[in-house]
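Weekly sync, protein design subgroup
Attendees: M.S., D.O., the rotation student, P.L. (late)

Item 1: inverse folding check
M.S. brought a backbone from last month's batch and wanted to see whether the design step gives back something sensible before we order anything. D.O. pointed out we never logged the input encoding, so this time it goes straight into the notes. Structure tokens as presented (261 positions):
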């Protein structure tokens, strides 16, 4: 299925079940199929599940002018409003988490029940006062480092084989060319959503990975100390793709949080 955005781009999406809406948002270079091992689980638990391919990803419209996170954030607003999704929980992985953080700031007029960020620090650039950015990048080197980091191993021991059966065909059909999307990645890297998270009154869960190759999981605890609305949960024996590497642990962690909202 598709919906049209404000500028006539099409977002490909899937919709399952009925109940409290959950919107799952993939990351940079990702595909909505990355959430395959969450769909049936949460539908069986009585939730309504939505997944979609972000603009210029997967089966959604191409956009050679995509350089800003704001565009993706506004796409999420279009998605919620045009499909009349009421009080969803936003669940974003990696850059998809940053889309969710940015949504809180850019679209406070659209109510959401909660935000869940999966292995994504709200500030990617390391500074003398912030040591929880993406790997070793700083304002001085982020372009050079990000341009060459496409071959970093994201996972600890790979993702669940059931996920690969869903993911590999769409990767072949809709290949993502990293070098063509570096301007978007650079914009993602420059953003700082810490003030948004520290000020929000919307419940937030930050799920981190003990073996993430990208982020020190302590960033979540640092933020949680400053805002009681933020909760944290670490998952062990996983790299960056928590929901694909440890799906049972991830699903149970998320379910427990949702049941206590």
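Designed sequence read out in the meeting:
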């Amino acid at each position: 299925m598709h919906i049209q955005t404000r500028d006539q781009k099409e977002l490909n999406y899937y919709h399952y079940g009925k109940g409290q809406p959950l919107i799952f948002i993939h990351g940079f270079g990702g595909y909505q199929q990355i959430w395959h091992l969450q769909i049936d689980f949460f539908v069986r638990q009585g939730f309504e599940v939505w997944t979609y391919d972000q603009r210029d990803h997967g089966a959604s419209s191409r956009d050679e002018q995509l350089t800003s996170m704001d565009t993706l954030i506004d796409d999420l607003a279009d998605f919620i409003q045009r499909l009349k999704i009421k009080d969803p929980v936003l669940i974003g992985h990696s850059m998809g988490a940053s889309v969710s953080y940015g949504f809180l700031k850019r679209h406070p007029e659209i109510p959401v029940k909660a935000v869940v960020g999966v292995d994504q620090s709200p500030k990617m650039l390391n500074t003398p006062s912030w040591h929880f950015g993406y790997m070793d990048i700083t304002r001085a080197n982020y372009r050079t480092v990000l341009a060459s980091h496409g071959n970093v191993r994201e996972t600890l021991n790979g993702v669940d084989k059931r996920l690969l059966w869903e993911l590999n065909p769409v990767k072949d059909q809709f290949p993502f060319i990293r070098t063509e999307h570096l301007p978007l990645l650079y914009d993602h890297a420059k953003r700082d959503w810490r003030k948004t998270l520290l000020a929000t009154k919307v419940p937030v869960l930050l799920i981190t990975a003990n073996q993430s190759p990208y982020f020190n999981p302590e960033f979540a605890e640092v933020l949680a100390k400053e805002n009681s609305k933020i909760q944290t949960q670490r998952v062990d024996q996983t790299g960056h793709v928590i929901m694909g590497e440890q799906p049972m642990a991830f699903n149970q962690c998320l379910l427990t949080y949702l049941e206590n909202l």
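Discussion: The mean pLDDT is 98. The beta strands are 2-4, 10-16, 20-25, 47-52, 89-93, 114-118, 204-209, 230-235.
Action: P.L. to compare against the previous round before Friday.
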